[in-house]
Design goal:
The chain contains 16 helices and 11 strands. By secondary structure, it is of the alpha+beta class.
């Protein structure tokens, strides 16, 4: 048994749905589901009380009848004319005798009632199943038929309706939750527990709303408070805290399979924390649930989508992904779409749609066609399938840390303003610049001074005589026979004006090139690296001093 009580004065609305009481706090987000631990389908306390198919009848049929007369076509009986009791269009279908097995408002003539109350071989379920109906279950089925045998849609497809709060527990009930609990206790012959101690009540509340134990000072303050509004104020204070937003975010992240790694193969890191922070902010600001839903599923498709709305769609990127070498992208595209459809239907619709992957769902109203129609929505994206050596596969966007967001926005605005000012100044100066340029072009330019090298040694690809130039005079040198070791191979001796031969690399004689040479000057102890331009004019620094060429290298 679950019992919750609070000081008088605490009044909030709620509604009863499928053995749950949904207790709506001032915050549109707080939905507390209280499950009553009942031994089985509840008895009807009064003949006039409506019998609910979803709450009372469906559990009986599912336990005793659906195995042979339910959604599984392979197990359905009888084979000649299978009977289904899970859907009204089949349950009220005319049988071989010209009548349906359930006659609305007339349990006495309904074949279903005759079979479940039989004591011979026609009894249902058969004795061989060893799963007989209890007398109270038979009575409940008869009462349901007498009230018209009304079927209901799957609970997840029915809009919640606020029920009338019962009068039970008038002596001790302090909020609508207590009234519903009192009614169920009375139906089962149970009495409520004594009122909980205030310290324990506050501790439970703190764990529920923040996930954290209260401090001793907070507990003592609550115990000492005599105000009827103490409990309500404690709830409001906790709901406004960061800890409460993080507590509800933790539960939400579990549902949407949040993880900061890709989950498969090498389990690379995934930088998805901005989505986590977005969810925390949504709970903290009490974002309306419809907005919370739209922005996560398709926030980036909204007109003029803001950064936060794009971040919200990180929900669609939370699934396990892979970059394994043997993975087939087409196969994983289907796997990813199925994962997204499974998660979305489970979290938002309360349906196990994944069961329809291979066949029509055996319990929920989902066909295989419906399931794959939904997966098509999630395949309409630009995200790559195989994510490579990290979990941050494209498309991605830069998002500053929450605490840096204000500064980041300010600096981006400053950069934009500065760029605009620079562009404006450039446009303003363009006219003056063009005038200056035209004026300069009219001025005569001084003739360039030709500089000739003192010694020009052309590289050659052969070992034969080479032509050179010494202070403007044409010379023909055959090269020397002595070789000097160098970093690019042996280089010929340059002595008395002999041209360098056999040097690497070979450069076309008439082409333009730059090259460097390691030159060893006789009677000097240091090595000097000299660079020449395409006319080798820098070699003029050597004059006519005899040198030994060590090696050459070209810079193209």
């Amino acid at each position: 048994m679950v019992s919750l009580s609070a000081p008088s004065g605490w009044r909030e609305g709620g509604f009863w749905r499928d053995k749950y009481f949904v207790f709506a706090n001032k915050s549109a987000w707080l939905l507390v589901l209280l499950t009553l631990a009942l031994p089985g389908p509840s008895k009807v306390s009064a003949a006039a009380e409506p019998v609910s198919y979803n709450n009372q009848i469906c559990p009986i049929l599912s336990e005793h009848c659906f195995h042979c007369h339910g959604p599984d076509s392979a197990a359905r009986k009888p084979k000649k004319h299978p009977l289904r009791l899970d859907r009204p269009e089949f349950a009220y279908e005319l049988r071989d005798d010209g009548k349906p097995v359930i006659i609305k408002g007339d349990p006495a003539t309904s074949e279903l009632v005759r079979r479940i109350t039989a004591t011979n071989d026609e009894m249902m379920p058969p004795a061989s199943e060893h799963n007989p109906l209890k007398p109270e279950e038979m009575a409940l089925l008869q009462q349901w038929i007498s009230q018209g045998g009304k079927y209901e849609k799957h609970w997840a497809l029915i809009p919640p309706v606020k029920s009338t709060v019962p009068k039970d527990g008038a002596r001790w009930a302090r909020n609508p939750v207590d009234n519903f609990i009192a009614r169920k206790l009375a139906q089962n012959g149970l009495a409520p527990n004594p009122e909980e101690q205030k310290a324990r009540l506050y501790r439970r509340l703190s764990f529920d709303l923040t996930g954290l134990p209260p401090s001793p000072a907070e507990v003592e303050s609550f115990v000492r408070t005599r105000s009827d509004k103490a409990y309500e104020k404690a709830v409001d204070r906790m709901l406004a805290s960061d800890a409460s937003a993080e507590q509800f975010t933790r539960l939400w992240l579990d549902a949407v399979r949040y993880a900061d790694t890709q989950g498969i193969h090498l389990d690379y890191a995934r930088s998805i924390w901005p989505y986590r922070d977005w969810v925390i902010a949504a709970f903290k600001t009490n974002m309306p649930f419809d907005q919370f839903t739209i922005e996560q599923i398709a926030g980036d498709m909204l007109p003029g989508a803001a950064e936060g709305q794009k971040v919200a769609t990180g929900y669609n990127r939370l699934l396990e992904t892979t970059s394994e070498g043997g993975a087939i992208s087409q196969e994983y595209a289907a796997i990813y779409a199925k994962d997204r459809a499974d998660t979305t239907t489970a979290v938002w619709l309360g349906l196990t749609a994944g069961c329809a992957t291979c066949h029509d769902h055996k319990f929920d109203p989902i066909s295989t066609k419906d399931f794959y129609s939904l997966t098509a929505f999630f395949r309409n994206n630009t995200s790559s399938i195989l994510d490579g050596p990290n979990g941050n596969n494209a498309p991605t966007m830069f998002v500053p840390a929450y605490q840096d967001a204000a500064e980041w926005k300010k600096y981006n605005q400053a950069i934009t303003t500065t760029k605009q000012a620079m562009a404006a100044r450039q446009r303003e100066a363009e006219s003056a610049f063009q005038k200056w340029l035209a004026r300069e072009k009219t001025k005569s330019t001084a003739p360039s001074t030709s500089i000739s090298p003192a010694l020009n040694l052309s590289l050659t690809e052969s070992n034969g005589p080479s032509l050179g130039e010494e202070r403007g005079n044409k010379i023909k040198w055959t090269g020397g026979t002595e070789r000097k070791a160098g970093p690019f191979g042996p280089a010929p001796l340059v002595n008395g004006g002999a041209v360098v031969q056999e040097a690497a690399p070979v450069v076309a004689r008439n082409g333009q090139a730059s090259y460097g040479a390691f030159i060893y000057v006789e009677k000097k102890t240091e090595w000097r690296r000299l660079l020449a331009d395409e006319r080798y004019r820098w070699l003029s620094r050597l004059g006519l001093v005899p040198v030994r060429g060590a090696s050459h290298s070209a810079y193209h």
